[in-house]
Prior knowledge:
- By secondary structure, the chain is α/β, with parallel strands linked by helices.
- The protein has 2 domains: 2-189 and 378-402, Glycogen Phosphorylase B (Rossmann fold); 208-376, Glycogen Phosphorylase B (Rossmann fold, 3-Layer(aba) Sandwich).
- Helix content is 44%, strand content 16%.
Amino acid sequence: MHIALVTPSWPMHRYPNGIVTYVHLLREELRAQGHRISVFANRIAPDGHEPGVHLVSDSMGSRLARRLARWAGNDLPEVFGWGQRIAASIDEVHRADPVDVIEMEESFGWCGDVQRLVDIPLVVKLHGPAFLSLVEEELDTPLAQQKIAAEGRALRRLHTITSPSGDTLRRTLERYGLRPALSEVVPNPMQVSTEVGLWDAARAAPRHILFVGRFDKRKGGDLVLLAFRRLLETDPRLRLTFVGPDTGLVRPAGPRIHFDEFCAGHFDPSQRERIDYKGQLSQADIARLRTQASVTLVASRWDNQPNTALEAMIQACPVVAVQAGGVDELVEHGVTGLLARAGDHDDLCAQLLAALDDPAAAGRMGQAARRRVLERHAGRTLAEQSLAVYRRAIAQHVQEAATP
């Protein structure tokens, strides 16, 4: 089978984004099973060019389509027109080597244009619908509302919709009133590397919390810092390592609030010294940090199936997570980690202390988490599940084409 996978960027080691990681892992497993994979990326790093990887470029047809849209009064920002570019790039490859099926995300409604312009079965996998992934102030912008509407229009065109979490799939179908011919939960695969160390309480630094994620509202970077400040009041020995880019907190008026400004407003100098902000690090460096910390914290206000949780779990690291989105489909409270109620700072602090105060119990949950990921997120199993969805999507496409 010749499968087209669409990703925002390429390769994974240059762009450690959840979708890029997913496409990389899926491609590797599908190729191992003998399938041909063409990757279409909006951005490719200089060392990411390789056979089968195609840069989505602007075509004469897509430029003409944008001009016609403007003449018709469609004044959406140019980013919403990228679906036409993706469609043109896939069509060019398809003419030389027919593509059997396309899988891509829902962002900006690009999938709707691709389905409309290219006569190939298309499977959309929900990675972060805007109505869920944009939080608080981010929702109150014209761009956010345009994105939500565009994604709804596009999804109504699609006959096959999948999602790594049941929560995201259910809420998306309900939000837009969708009844696709095929809707299914297909979890994301997780890579198992023998080079990555496993967590061991004897080697982990006591009273040490690790957070991996952007400093923004969605990933809950502000919640992490506020919870840590409260914990320091009861235990000044605690340490926090914060890893991730500083994209800042959106506020109703004025510039974004960035990490250092936020810390200056909430910590005194002695407390600030207990926080080690690392910025963005390589996956290998993050894997080492996980084994050195007592607990890994996942604090997203919403998340679909966060790789930050899966990657910690595969290393048998104790995980404390906020119960939001599809997180509780990964972390079973008291079995594979600890869950804190969304929006409850006291509960988040209590769960962190429970993990810190009982390393033996935390370690048992970490081992159970590793077993759970190995069982449910094995690359071969999930690639076969994806292939089953592709075959059903192709059959549906053929049936519709044959219907008068």
